[in-house]
Design brief:
Elements (H helix, E strand, L loop, with lengths): L4 H16 L1 H10 L5 E4 L7 H11 L1 E2 L4 E4 L3 E5 L16 E3 L3 H24 L5 H5 L2 H14 L11 H12 L8 H5 L2 H18 L5 H13 L17 H14 L4 H8 L8 H16 L1 H7 L11 H20 L4 H4 L3 H14 L8 H16 L4 H5 L2 H19 L4 H13 L17 H13 L5 H8 L1 H4 L2 H30 L3 H5 L13 E2 L5 H6 L3 E2 L12 E6 L3 H5 L1 H10 L6 E7 L4 H10 L4 E7 L2 E7 L2 E6 L4 H8 L4 E6 L19 H8 L7 H14 L6 E4 L6 H16 L1 H10 L5 E4 L7 H11 L1 E2 L4 E4 L3 E5 L16 E3 L3 H24 L5 H5 L2 H14 L11 H12 L8 H5 L2 H18 L5 H13 L17 H14 L4 H8 L8 H16 L1 H7 L11 H20 L4 H4 L3 H14 L8 H16 L4 H5 L2 H19 L4 H13 L17 H13 L5 H8 L1 H4 L2 H30 L3 H5 L13 E2 L5 H6 ...
Parallel strand pairs: 2-20, 3-24, 4-5, 6-16, 7-11, 8-9, 8-13, 9-12, 10-17, 13-14, 18-19, 21-25, 22-23, 22-27, 23-26, 27-28
Antiparallel strand pairs: 1-4, 10-11, 15-18, 24-25
Helix pairs in contact: 1-2, 1-66, 4-6, 4-7, 4-9, 4-10, 10-13, 11-12, 13-14, 15-17, 15-20, 15-21, 17-21, 17-25, 21-25, 22-23, 31-33, 33-34, 34-35, 37-39, 37-40, 37-42, 37-43, 43-46, 44-45, 46-47, 48-50, 48-53, 48-54, 50-54, 50-58, 54-58, 55-56, 64-66
C-alpha cells in the first residue's frame, strides 16, 4: 500500500544498484519489469483469541493463522518477464495496462479513510474499527472525508465511486473483522503522507475545502501527544515520533501554530498559502477546549456533500437556535422542542427570513426536504448535543446570511433573536435555574462578555465581534437588533420574547408559504414517494434516486411486463434501473400490466407515486435504499382489454416479459395447457378480449401478424425449469386452438429465451413500510425488500437482437441457460422448498431464524449433498461454494423471509424443483433419503396444523386433492404412495424405493415429531455420512449416550471424561474398525478428535440417544453381519445393543425417568420389559431392530443375552468393569490406547500435512488437495514479507488458482530477512508451511487451510544461499509486502543510504541485508550469468508501488 509501489521499488532498486555496479543498474533499468499493483483485503493482526477460536470451532491448532474479510481485490499491471505469471485473472484479479487510477482511488479513499478514522476513533475511546463504525459521529465523519477527497479521484473504469464508498462503510463496519484502530494509526506520519498529501495538494490547487482533511490531521496531532482523552497512555509506533512529539507538545501546551507539524509530515509546499494551517488550527482549538467529540459535533450529521449548499446551513442555523431556546425552556430532546408551538413559530419566522438569501428556492420542495431530514437525522437527537460548539455552528450558518440580508435591505430580526438566545444559553443556566454544561471552543472568550450583557448593560457588539468577526460587529443595525432581543429576554425571559415573534413576521410572503410547517411534529418525516418530492428524498443523502429521463413518450423500446410483484421489482426492473442510472439503454422503459383483480392494488399503489417504488437491499453487512424508476407506466388491462392488446401490437413493444408464477401458466400436472381453466376457456371463446397472460401474448402476436409486423420477444422470468420452452409450448397450444396459421407463425418467428433468475425477495409487510418511513423518511404504498445478491442468466435469443444491454450490469448472456437453471432450481429453489415445511413444523416462522437452528442447516446441507449429483457442471461455478453461499444467503438476518411464503404452492414447487432429481437419483440407484424427508415434511404440513396444534393456512392448488390423502397417511397408517404419485407422477413410485423412504420418515414424524426425524440424521454434512467411518462414530456415540445417561451423565463432555466409558469406546472402535478396509488408525483417531471437538462435545446425551433404534440400525447392522461372516468378535456391539435395551426401560441407574423418543418405542418397550422383568431372550428385540437376518444369528443373540444378564445382576457400572478384560491385547486396541486424549481439552489438531485429511473430514474446513511437492514445481515466486496480509491476499489468490487445477507449475516460497521474521519461519515450518485463513464476511465466518506457500527461507541462516535461490531459473517473480519502512527511503522519496540495512548492502551486496539488497544481489548474479531477470512485484499499499 504505497503510492506507485512498482515505480518506487524500481527507483530505489536502481539507486542501490548504482552504488553497487552502474552496469548492473543499466541492465536492471532496461530488462527488469516492476509492475504496479493495487491490493485490497482488510487483514487485522491475529491474536490468541483467533487461535483459540480456530481450535474451538474447527479443531485446528495453528501457530500463526490469518483472519481477513471476505472481500479481496488485486489489480496488476501486465508487465512480466516473458509474460510469465500465474493466470490470476481466473480467480478475480484484474490484469490491466494502467493501475494508477485504481491505486489512486484505493489509497486516497480506502487507506485515507482508514487513516482518517484511526486517531479520531481512538481518541473517542474506541479500540476496534467495527465498534467505532457503529458510532454515528465517526461514520458521518468518514462520509464527509470521502466526499471531500473524492473530487481528487480520477474516474475508474467500471467503478461507481459513490457505491465504492458505501461499500467501504460496510466493510469497515464488518463485525466479524475485529481490526484495531491502533493498528491503523501505526506509522501514521508515513500513512498520512502517502494517502492524504496528493488530495491536499490538489484540493488547494482547485481552491476546494480542506476542512475534513484538516480535522483528520488535527486528530493525528492530538494522538501523537501520547495519551488519549481519558489520560490513558498510547504506545506510539511511528518513524517520526521523536521528531513530531515536541511539535505537538508546543501546539497543545503552548498554543503554537500547527504549521511546522504539517510541514514535517507533508512537506513545506502544503503550508505555503496558510489555508491548511488555518483549518488545522481551528480544529485543534476545539479539540483542546472541548475534546474530539465536540469537534465532530461541529460537522453536520449529514454527508459532507449535503453540507455544501446554503439550504443545509439554513437547517443548521435553525436547529442550533431551536436547541438553545428549547433547552432554556426546559426541553431536552429535539422531538419535544419541535412539538412546542412557540418554537415552531420562531422556526417559521427564521426560515422565512433566511430563505430570502437562497436563490430559486422551491418552498414546497424545501419544506419536504426539511421534513425528511428532521425525520431521518434529527428527531431523536438531544438538544444539548445540537447546541454544542454553537459559536462555530452559528458562524457557519449565519454570518453569510447576516451580511447578505443587510446588503439586500432585508430584515435580520430573527437571526438577531437566534444570536440573543445563544448569548442567554451561554450564561450556563436555563430559565428554571438548572445548570447547563457548556461545550464551546469560545466559552472562555464569550462567558465574560455575555455576563456583562445580562448582569450589566453592555452592548452585544463585543460578543458579535468575537463570534462573527468585526465585519458583522460593525453593522450597527444588527447589533441594535440583538441588543433589543437581549433586553426582551432580560426583562421577561425567553418565553416572553417568543410571544413577540408571531407579530414580527406575520404577513411575510415567505411566511405565508411556510405556514404549513407546523407539520414538523412527532409524526413528521415520511415523504409521499412521487416525482415531485424525488429531489427532496435524495437530498437527505441516504437514498439513491433516479436521475435519468422517465418520460415514457420519449422512449422507443418498451418491455411490457405481466406480473409486477415484489420479485420483478427487485430483479428485472432493478437491472434496467441500474442500466438507466449508468446512462445506458436510455431508449428503454418498463410498462407493468395487471390482468387479474388482485393486480388492481399494485396498479393503484404505483400510479399514486408516479410508478416509482423503494427497494431496500439487505446484505449481510447492512441495508441500503434506492428509489427505482425503470417502470414508467402501468396498464390495468380489465379497464380496457382491447386497448391493452393494441399496446402489445405497437411498434414500441419489443419484449413481453412474465413473472406470473406457476399458476399463471394455466397448465396441468402433465405439463399441457389446461383448457378447462376459466381464464384459458375465456381466451378460447374471445381472444380479442383475453383473460390470461398467455391469452394477451397470443392476442398481441395475432394483431402483429395480421398487420405484417415483426413479433415481440416473449421472456419468461419465472422460477420454472426450462421456462422459455414451457412458455413457448403453452403459447403454441393456445394459438393452435385459436388459429393454426398463427401457431405456425409463432413457432417460426417468435423467440422464447430461457432465463435463470435469482434474488431472494420476501413479502413486504407493514413493518418494512414503517422502517422505510422511520429510517429514510419515505412513505411508499408498496416498497420492496430483497437481499443484495442477484443473478440473471439469459439465453441470447431476441427479435433482431433487440434488448437492453443487461450484461453491463452483471447479467450473463449465454447460448445455453439450462445448466445454470438446473443448478439454481434444483439447489436453491429445491433447498427453499425442502426447509420450508421442516422449519415451520419445528415452530419457526422466519427463514433466517430457522437457519440458525443447526438441525435445519444440517438438513439443508444433507439435501444439497444428495441432489448435487444430479446437477450438471456449470461454467465458472464451484458447486460446493455455491451451496455454501446459499447457506449464508438463506441465513441473512436482514432478509426476514417467511417459511410460509416458501411453502405456498408447495405441490407445484416440489414438482418443479424435486421431480428431476428424484427421477435421476432413482435411475442412478443413489439414495433418496433426504428428498424423502422433505416430501414427508410437506405431507405433514398439508395436514393443516403444525406440531403445536396451531392451524396452517394452506395455499396450494392441489390442497383439496392432497388433504384427504395425508389424512389417511397420518390417521389411518396408509402408505404415502398415492400422495407421492399425485404430486410427482406415477413413474416415481413404480419401484417402491421412494415410497419406502417417505413412509419410514413419516413413521418417525408421527411417533416422535419433526425434531426426532432430524435427529436421526448425522449432524455432519450428509456427504460425510456415506462412509463407514461415520457409521462407526455414530454407533459409538449412540452407545455412549445410552450408557452415559444410565450412569447419571447428561452431556457428551461429561460422559467422554469418564474412564469407564472411554474404555468401552476403545473396545467398540477396536472391534468395529476391523470392517473398515485400509484404515489408518492414527489418522482415524485424529479425525475422531476433530469431530468430537467441532460437533459433539457440547451436545446432550438425551438428544444423541433419540431415535436410537434407527441410529443403531444404520451404524451396526452391517458391521454385525460382516464381523460374524469374518469370524471376528461382535462382543462390544452386543454390549452396545444391551445398553440400549436397558435405556429403553425408561429410567436410569438411579431411578430417574428417561423421556424416550424413538419411533419403535411402542414395539420395543414390551420386549425389553420382558427381558429385564422376566427372562425373555433378546431375539425378538433384535428382530424388531435389525431384521430377522441378524435375529437369526444365534451367536450374536447369545452375546446380547449375556450382557443383559450382567446388567440385570450388577447394573451398567458392573458390566462396564468387565470391558477392559474382554478387549485387552487386541492389535487394534493397542493402536487405539491413546484415545484417552478424548477429554475436555481434545480437538485441536496440529496443522500439518499428516492431519490434513482428518481436518478436512470434519466438513467445516476446506483443505488443499493439489500437489504441494516443491521439487516438482518449475515456476517459483519468492516473497519477502510473509505476514498476515500476504497470506490473506496474494498467497490466497494462488491457492485459489491451484485449487481450480490451474497454475499447477507455480508455488510460493517465503523469504524472511529480519530477526522478527524468524517467528513466522518457525511457525510455518512446524506445520509444513500450511496455515489457516478465517474469512469473515458480514454473513459469517468460513475457514480454509492454505497451501500455496510450499517453502520458507530464513535468509540470515545463509544469506549467500538465499541469493543463489533468486538466481535459479525457477525463480520467475520476486514479490514484496514489506510495508513503507522496508523500502528504506527518505521523506523526499529517495533511497536512504544512511539506513543501516542499505549501508550494509553497499559494503557487501553478496551478503545483503535489505529486501532491495536481495533483489539487486539476485539480479546481479543473473546478469553475470547471462540469464533473464525475474519480475519484481511490489504488493505494498503505496501509490505507484512498482515505480
Amino acid at each position: 500500500n504505497i503510492p506507485e509501489n512498482g515505480h518506487i521499488t524500481k527507483r530505489l532498486t536502481l539507486e542501490l544498484a548504482e552504488l553497487i555496479d552502474p552496469d548492473l543498474a543499466a541492465w536492471i533499468r532496461e530488462r527488469v519489469p516492476f509492475p504496479m499493483t493495487m491490493v485490497d483485503r482488510i487483514t487485522p493482526l491475529t491474536t490468541e483469541v483467533e487461535q483459540r477460536e480456530l481450535a474451538d470451532q474447527y479443531g485446528i491448532c495453528d501457530a500463526w493463522p490469518v483472519v481477513a474479510e471476505d472481500f479481496m481485490q488485486w489489480v496488476i499491471e501486465d508487465k512480466f518477464v516473458d509474460d510469465l505469471r500465474p493466470n490470476w485473472e481466473h480467480v478475480g484479479a484484474l490484469i490491466v495496462n494502467n493501475v494508477t487510477v485504481y491505486e489512486s482511488m484505493k489509497i486516497r479513499v480506502l487507506n485515507g479513510g482508514h487513516s482518517a478514522i484511526s486517531c479520531v476513533g481512538y481518541l473517542l475511546g474506541h479500540r476496534d474499527v467495527h465498534v467505532a463504525m457503529m458510532d454515528s459521529r465517526i461514520s458521518n465523519f468518514l462520509r464527509s472525508y470521502f466526499s471531500e477527497v473524492s473530487v481528487t479521484v480520477p474516474p475508474v473504469p467500471g467503478v461507481d465511486l459513490d457505491q465504492y464508498q458505501s461499500q467501504l462503510i460496510n466493510r469497515f463496519g464488518n463485525v466479524h473483522i475485529k481490526d484495531k484502530l491502533q493498528r491503523l494509526a501505526e506509522d501514521g506520519s508515513m500513512k498520512l503522507l502517502n494517502t492524504m498529501r496528493g488530495p491536499i495538494v490538489e484540493l488547494l490547487e482547485m481552491k476546494k475545502p480542506v476542512e475534513i482533511v484538516a480535522l483528520a490531521i488535527a486528530s493525528f496531532a492530538r494522538y501523537m501527544m501520547g495519551t488519549d482523552e481519558q489520560g490513558q497512555p498510547i504506545v506510539l509506533k511511528d518513524p517520526k515520533a521523536k521528531e513530531l512529539h515536541p511539535l505537538v507538545w508546543e501546539i497543545f501546551c503552548n498554543n503554537d501554530s500547527s504549521k511546522n507539524f504539517i510541514a514535517t509530515v507533508f512537506g513545506e509546499d502544503v503550508v505555503t498559502d496558510g489555508l491548511l494551517t488555518e483549518a488545522v488550527d481551528r480544529w485543534i482549538s476545539i479539540i483542546k477546549l472541548a475534546g474530539m467529540a465536540s469537534a465532530l459535533n461541529v460537522l453536520l450529521p449529514e454527508d459532507h456533500s449535503a453540507m455544501e449548499g446554503m439550504k443545509q446551513k439554513v437547517l443548521q442555523g435553525g436547529l442550533t437556535a431551536i436547541a438553545c431556546l428549547g433547552y432554556l425552556l426546559g426541553h431536552r430532546d429535539v422531538s419535544s422542542a419541535i412539538s412546542d408551538d412557540r418554537l415552531l413559530y420562531f422556526l417559521r419566522a427564521y426560515f422565512s427570513e433566511v430563505l430570502v438569501t437562497v436563490p430559486d428556492v422551491d418552498m414546497e420542495e424545501y419544506k419536504m426536504s426539511l421534513l425528511a431530514q428532521f425525520k431521518s437525522v434529527h428527531l431523536r437527537d438531544k438538544l444539548e448535543r445540537v447546541a454544542q460548539n454553537g459559536s462555530m455552528k452559528l458562524f457557519n450558518a449565519m454570518r453569510g446570511p447576516i451580511l447578505d440580508l443587510l446588503e439586500m435591505g432585508e430584515s435580520v430580526d430573527m437571526i438577531a433573536f437566534a444570536v440573543a438566545s445563544f448569548s442567554r444559553y451561554m450564561m450556563g443556566a436555563d430559565e428554571h435555574g438548572v445548570t447547563i454544561i457548556i461545550k464551546d471552543p469560545l466559552t472562555s472568550t464569550l462567558y465574560p462578555l455575555v455576563w456583562s450583557m445580562y448582569c450589566g448593560n453592555s452592548s452585544s457588539k463585543k460578543m458579535i465581534d468575537a463570534m462573527f468577526g468585526a465585519e458583522v460587529g460593525d453593522k450597527a443595525e444588527f447589533v441594535a437588533m440583538v441588543d433589543e432581543w437581549v433586553s426582551e429576554i432580560k426583562s421577561g425571559g425567553v418565553e416572553a420574547a417568543l410571544r413577540i415573534v408571531p407579530d414580527r413576521w406575520k404577513g411575510s410572503e415567505i411566511g405565508d408559504e411556510l405556514s404549513e410547517i407546523g407539520d414538523l411534529n412527532m409524526e413528521i418525516g415520511a415523504l409521499k414517494l412521487s416525482t415531485r418530492y424525488l429531489e427532496a428524498i435524495g437530498d437527505v443523502g441516504m437514498v439513491s434516486v433516479p436521475t435519468y429521463n422517465r418520460d415514457i413518450a420519449e422512449k422507443t423500446s418498451l418491455i411490457y411486463h405481466f406480473g409486477v410483484g415484489g420479485f420483478h421489482r427487485s430483479h428485472q426492473a432493478f437491472y434496467l434501473h441500474d442500466l438507466l442510472s449508468m446512462g445506458k439503454a436510455s431508449d428503454w422503459a418498463l410498462v407493468g400490466v395487471g390482468i387479474l383483480p388482485f393486480d388492481k392494488a399494485m396498479y393503484d399503489a404505483l400510479k399514486s407515486q408516479d410508478y416509482l417504488y423503494s427497494l431496500m437491499s439487505r446484505g449481510s453487512s447492512g441495508v441500503g435504499c434506492s428509489v427505482v424508476g425503470s417502470i414508467m407506466d402501468y396498464v390495468y388491462a380489465p379497464n380496457d382489454k382491447k386497448a391493452c392488446v393494441e399496446l402489445l401490437a405497437e411498434e414500441k413493444c419489443k419484449i413481453v416479459s412474465l413473472t406470473i408464477t406457476e399458476k399463471g401458466y394455466c397448465w396441468k400436472a402433465d405439463g399441457s395447457l389446461d383448457v378447462n381453466n376459466n381464464l384459458i376457456a375465456a381466451d378460447i371463446l374471445d381472444i380479442a378480449s383475453p383473460s390470461s397472460a398467455l391469452g394477451y401474448i397470443v392476442a398481441g402476436l395475432k394483431l402483429r401478424k395480421e398487420r405484417g409486423m415483426k413479433p415481440f420477444t416473449v421472456l419468461s422470468c419465472d422460477n420454472i425449469p426450462e421456462n422459455g420452452h414451457i412458455t413457448k409450448r403453452l403459447t403454441l397450444e393456445l394459438a393452435e386452438l385459436i388459429d393454426p396459421d398463427l401457431a405456425a407463425w409463432i413457432r417460426e418467428r417468435v423467440p422464447f429465451p430461457m432465463t435463470m433468475v435469482d434474488r431472494i425477495t420476501p413479502l413486504t409487510t407493514e413493518v418494512e413500510q414503517r422502517e422505510l418511513a422511520d429510517q429514510y423518511g419515505i412513505c411508499d404504498a408498496w416498497p420492496v425488500v430483497a437481499e443484495d445478491f442477484m443473478q440473471w442468466v439469459i439465453e441470447d435469443k431476441f427479435v433482431d437482437d433487440l434488448r437492453p444491454n443487461w450484461e453491463h450490469v452483471g447479467a450473463l448472456i449465454v447460448n445455453n441457460v439450462t445448466v445454470y437453471e438446473s443448478m439454481k432450481i434444483r439447489v436453491l429453489n429445491g433447498g427453499h422448498s425442502a426447509i420450508s415445511c421442516v422449519g415451520y413444523l419445528l415452530g419457526h416462522r422466519d427463514v433466517h431464524v430457522a437457519m440458525m437452528d443447526s438441525r435445519i442447516s444440517n438438513f439443508l446441507r444433507s439435501y444439497f449433498s444428495e441432489v448435487s449429483v444430479t446437477v450438471p457442471p456449470v461454467p465458472g461455478v464451484d458447486l460446493d461454494q455455491y451451496q455454501s453461499q446459499l447457506i449464508n444467503r438463506f441465513g441473512n438476518v436482514h432478509i426476514k423471509d417467511k417459511l410460509q411464503r416458501l411453502a405456498e404452492d408447495g405441490s407445484m414447487k416440489l414438482l418443479n424443483t424435486m421431480r428431476g432429481p428424484i427421477v435421476e437419483l432413482l435411475e442412478m440407484k443413489k439414495p433418496v433419503e433426504i428428498v424423502a424427508l422433505a416430501i414427508a415434511s410437506f405431507a405433514r404440513y398439508m395436514m393443516g396444523t403444525d406440531e403445536q396444534g396451531q392451524p396452517i393456512v394452506l395455499k396450494d392448488p392441489k390442497a383439496k386433492e392432497l388433504h384427504p390423502l395425508v389424512w389417511e397417511i397420518f390417521c389411518n397408517n396408509d402408505s404415502s404412495k398415492n400422495f407421492i404419485a399425485t404430486v410427482f407422477g406415477e413413474d416415481v413410485v413404480t419401484d417402491g424405493l421412494l415410497t419406502e423412504a417417505v413412509d419410514r420418515w413419516i413413521s418417525i414424524i408421527k411417533l416422535a415429531g419433526m425434531a426426532s426425524a432430524l435427529n436421526v440424521l448425522l449432524p455432519e454434512d450428509h456427504s460425510a455420512m456415506e462412509g463407514m467411518k461415520q457409521k462407526v462414530l455414530q454407533g459409538g456415540l449412540t452407545a455412549i449416550a445410552c450408557l452415559g445417561y444410565l450412569l447419571g451423565h447428561r452431556d457428551v463432555s461429561s460422559a467422554i471424561s469418564d474412564d469407564r466409558l472411554l474404555y468401552f469406546l476403545r473396545a467398540y472402535f477396536s472391534e468395529v474398525l476391523v470392517t473398515v478396509p485400509d484404515v489408518d488408525m492414527e489418522e482415524y483417531k485424529m479425525s475422531l478428535l476433530a469431530q468430537f471437538k467441532s460437533v459433539h462435545l457440547r451436545d446432550k446425551l438425551e438428544r444423541v440417544a433419540q431415535n436410537g433404534s434407527m441410529k443403531l440400525f444404520n451404524a451396526m447392522r452391517g458391521p454385525i453381519l460382516d464381523l460374524l461372516e469374518m469370524g471376528e468378535s461382535v462382543d462390544m456391539i452386543a454390549f452396545a445393543v444391551a445398553s440400549f435395551s436397558r435405556y429403553m426401560m425408561g429410567a436410569d441407574e438411579h431411578g430417574v425417568t428417561i423421556i424416550i423418543k424413538d419411533p419403535l418405542t411402542s414395539t420395543l418397550y414390551p420386549l425389553v420389559w420382558s427381558m429385564y422383568c422376566g427372562n425373555s431372550s433378546s431375539k425378538k428385540m433384535i428382530d424388531a431392530m435389525f431384521g430377522a437376518e441378524v435375529g437369526d444369528k444365534a451367536e450374536f443373540v447369545a452375546m446380547v443375552d449375556e450382557w443383559v444378564s450382567e446388567i440385570k445382576s450388577g447394573g451398567v457400572e458392573a458390566a462396564l468393569r468387565i470391558v477392559p478384560d474382554r478387549w485387552k491385547g487386541s492389535e487394534i486396541g493397542d493402536e487405539l490406547s491413546e484415545i484417552g486424549d478424548l477429554n475436555m481439552e481434545i480437538g485441536a489438531l496440529k496443522l500439518s500435512t499428516r492431519y490434513l485429511e482428518a481436518i478436512g473430514d470434519v466438513g467445516m474446513v476446506s483443505v488443499p488437495t493439489y500437489n504441494r511437492d516443491i521439487a516438482e514445481k518449475t515456476s517459483l515466486i519468492y516473497h519477502f514479507g510473509v505476514g498476515g496480509f500476504h497470506r490473506s491476499h496474494q498467497a490466497f489468490y494462488l491457492h485459489d488458482l491451484l485449487s481450480m487445477g490451474k497454475a499447477s507449475d507455480w508455488a510460493l516460497v517465503g523469504v524472511g530477512i529480519l530477526p522478527f521474521d524468524k517467528a513466522m519461519y518457525d511457525a510455518l515450518k512446524s506445520q509444513d508451511y500450511l496455515y489457516s485463513l478465517m474469512s469473515r464476511g458480514s454473513s459469517g465466518v468460513g475457514c480454509s487451510v492454505v497451501g500455496s506457500i510450499m517453502d520458507y527461507v530464513y535468509a540470515p541462516n545463509d544469506k549467500k544461499a538465499c541469493v543463489e535461490l533468486l538466481a535459479e531459473e525457477k525463480c520467475k517473480i520476486v514479490s514484496l509486502t514489506i510495508t513503507e519502512k522496508g523500502y528504506c527511503w527518505k521523506a523526499d522519496g529517495s533511497l536512504d543510504v544512511n539506513n543501516n540495512l542499505i549501508a550494509a548492502d553497499i559494503l557487501d551486496i553478496a551478503s545483503p541485508s535489505s529486501a532491495l539488497g536481495y533483489i539487486v544481489a539476485g539480479l546481479k548474479l543473473r546478469k553475470e550469468r547471462g540469464m533473464k531477470p525475474f519480475t519484481v512485484l511490489s504488493c505494498d499499499n503505496i501509490p505507484e508501488n512498482g515505480h
